[in-house]
C-alpha cells in the first residue's frame, strides 16, 4: 500500500509527511559501516586504523543507534583488514539466532598468503555465547586472485554464503577469466564446502569492483556483480538462486560501456513483498524492485551530482524507502552524503537531503527505527 493510501482521511486524501532522516557518525570515528537490524537489535560493523591494514569492530545498539555497546574486534590477527578503495572492506550478515557473520578481503598482513603473495578471503563468526568472535579463517583453497571486494549473506536455516571473484584456476589472470566464486556453509558457518563457480558464463568480472549478496524474504539468494566482457562492457549482473545456492541464473540489469574499472558497490533491502536492489551506472546511482530475477524499472537518484557512488537502501514500516549515496568521493578523496525518501510506490517524497563529511574510503549505511524514521550512519 502506498503512503498516499495510508494517508487517506475523512473528507479526502493527502500525502503524509515523508519520514524523518537522522544522521549518525560511525562509533569511535570509524569508517565503512555495515548495519543490519534483527529482532530489535541494531548490529554495526566498522573499520578503524590504517587503511592498508586495520581492524574490524562490531557493536550492538538496543536503542537504534543512540548508544552502542563496547566494541568487539572481529579480526583475530591485528591489521588483517583493508579499507583502501572503499570496496574491499568487510561485509556483515546476521544469520540464524542472531549470529553475526563477517567476511573480508585480507590485507597485506593477513595470512595465509596464496601464490604470488595473494591475499586470503577471510571469515569470522560470533561465538555461541555471543561474547567474542571466533578466530578468522581463510576460505580460499584454490581460487586465489582477490582484487575487488568479497561479500556474504546468511539465512534463518543456518546457511552462510561467502562470495568473491578471482580468475578461473589455471587460466590467465585477466578480467575476462574472472568468475564469481562461492563457498557455502550449512551449519551456521562452522564449516564451509570448497569454493565453486556458481554461474559459469563468460561475462568476466570487473577486477576492482565490489559485490553484494542478500537472502530475500522468499529465501532467494541474490548477488550483484559487475561484468568485464571484452574489456569495455561493464554491465551490472544479478545472480539469483531459488534452491539455496544449488544453481544460479544471471541477468544483465544495467548496461555500461566503459573501458575502465569503476570501483563500484551495490546494495539490497527488503520491503514487505519485494527485494530492492541498488547499484551505480555512469556516475549515477539507481535502484528498483527485483522481479523474476531482473529489475524492470530502475529509478535514478533525483537531480545531478558529482560522481555518485556507494548506494545504500533501507525500508520502513510505512512502506517508504530511503536511498542514500555519496557524491564527490574519489581515490584518497573524501566526499559528501546525499539521500532521498520514496513512498510505497517508489515515488519521490520531499526534497533530497545533503551533508558534508564522508571520510576518505568511507560510505553510508542505512536503517529504519520502529517509529518509521530513517537513520544514515556514515
Model regions low in confidence, pLDDT < 50 over at least 5 residues:
1-14
Strand order of the largest sheet: 4-5-6-7
Based on the structure given, which CATH architecture is correct? 6 Propeller
* Percent of residues in β-strands: 35-45%
Structural class, please? mainly beta
> What percent of residues adopt helix (DSSP H or I)?
under 10%
Helix count, per DSSP? 1
Secondary structure tally: strands: 28
Mean pLDDT: 95
Nearest-angstrom radius of gyration? 20 Å
Number of separate domains: 1
CATH topology: Neuraminidase
| CATH class wording | Mainly Beta
Largest sheet: 4 strands, antiparallel
Order of helices and strands: HEEEEEEEEEEEEEEEEEEEEEEEEEEEE
Q: Give the terminus-to-terminus CA distance.
A: 30 Å
Shape: globular
List the helices and strands and how they pair.
Layout: H1 3-6, E1 8-9, E2 12-13, E3 21-24, E4 31-38, E5 41-50, E6 53-61, E7 72-73, E8 91-94, E9 100-105, E10 121-125, E11 137-138, E12 151-154, E13 160-167, E14 178-185, E15 212-215, E16 221-226, E17 236-241, E18 249-254, E19 267-270, E20 275-281, E21 284-290, E22 299-300, E23 309-315, E24 321-327, E25 335-342, E26 348-358, E27 365-368, E28 374-377
Parallel strand pairs: 3-28
Antiparallel strand pairs: 1-2, 4-5, 5-6, 6-7, 8-9, 9-10, 10-11, 12-13, 13-14, 15-16, 16-17, 17-18, 19-20, 20-21, 21-22, 23-24, 24-25, 25-26, 27-28
Amino acid at each position: 500500500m502506498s503512503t498516499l493510501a495510508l494517508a487517506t482521511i475523512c473528507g479526502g486524501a493527502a500525502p503524509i509527511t515523508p519520514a524523518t532522516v537522522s544522521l549518525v557518525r560511525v562509533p569511535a570515528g570509524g569508517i565503512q559501516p555495515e548495519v543490519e537490524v534483527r529482532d530489535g537489535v541494531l548490529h554495526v560493523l566498522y573499520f578503524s586504523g590504517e587503511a592498508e591494514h586495520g581492524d574490524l569492530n562490531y557493536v550492538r545498539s538496543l536503542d537504534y543507534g543512540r548508544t552502542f555497546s563496547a566494541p568487539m574486534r572481529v579480526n583475530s590477527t591485528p591489521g588483517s583488514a583493508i579499507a583502501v578503495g572503499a570496496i574491499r572492506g568487510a561485509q556483515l550478515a546476521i544469520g540464524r539466532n542472531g549470529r553475526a557473520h563477517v567476511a573480508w578481503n585480507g590485507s597485506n598482513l593477513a595470512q595465509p598468503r596464496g601464490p604470488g603473495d595473494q591475499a586470503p578471503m577471510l571469515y569470522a563468526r560470533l561465538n555461541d555465547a555471543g561474547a567474542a568472535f571466533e578466530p578468522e579463517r581463510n576460505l580460499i583453497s584454490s581460487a586465489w586472485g582477490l582484487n575487488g571486494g568479497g561479500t556474504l549473506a546468511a539465512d534463518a536455516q543456518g546457511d552462510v554464503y561467502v562470495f568473491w571473484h578471482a580468475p578461473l584456476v589455471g587460466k590467465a589472470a585477466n578480467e575476462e577469466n574472472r568468475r564469481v566464486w562461492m563457498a557455502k556453509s550449512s551449519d551456521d558457518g562452522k564449516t564451509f564446502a570448497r569454493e565453486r563457480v556458481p554461474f559459469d558464463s563468460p561475462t568476466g568480472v570487473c577486477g576492482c569492483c565490489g559485490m553484494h549478496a542478500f537472502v530475500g524474504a522468499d529465501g532467494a539468494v541474490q548477488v550483484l556483480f559487475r561484468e568485464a566482457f571484452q574489456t569495455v562492457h561493464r554491465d551490472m549482473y544479478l545472480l539469483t538462486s531459488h534452491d539455496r545456492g544449488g544453481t544460479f541464473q544471471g541477468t544483465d540489469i544495467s548496461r555500461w560501456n566503459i573501458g575502465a574499472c569503476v570501483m563500484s558497490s551495490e546494495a539490497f533491502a527488503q520491503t514487505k513483498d519485494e527485494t530492492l536492489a541498488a547499484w551505480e551506472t555512469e556516475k549515477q546511482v539507481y535502484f528498483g524492485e527485483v522481479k523474476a530475477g531482473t529489475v524492470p524499472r530502475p529509478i535514478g537518484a533525483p537531480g545531478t551530482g558529482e560522481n555518485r557512488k556507494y548506494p545504500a537502501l533501507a525500508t520502513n514500516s510505512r512502506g517508504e524507502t530511503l536511498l542514500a549515496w555519496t557524491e564527490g568521493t574519489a581515490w584518497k578523496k573524501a566526499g559528501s552524503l546525499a539521500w532521498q525518501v520514496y513512498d510505497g510506490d517508489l515515488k519521490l517524497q520531499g526534497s533530497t537531503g545533503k551533508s558534508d563529511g564522508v571520510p576518505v574510503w568511507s560510505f553510508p549505511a542505512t536503517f529504519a527505527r520502529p517509529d518509521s524514521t530513517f537513520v544514515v550512519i556514515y
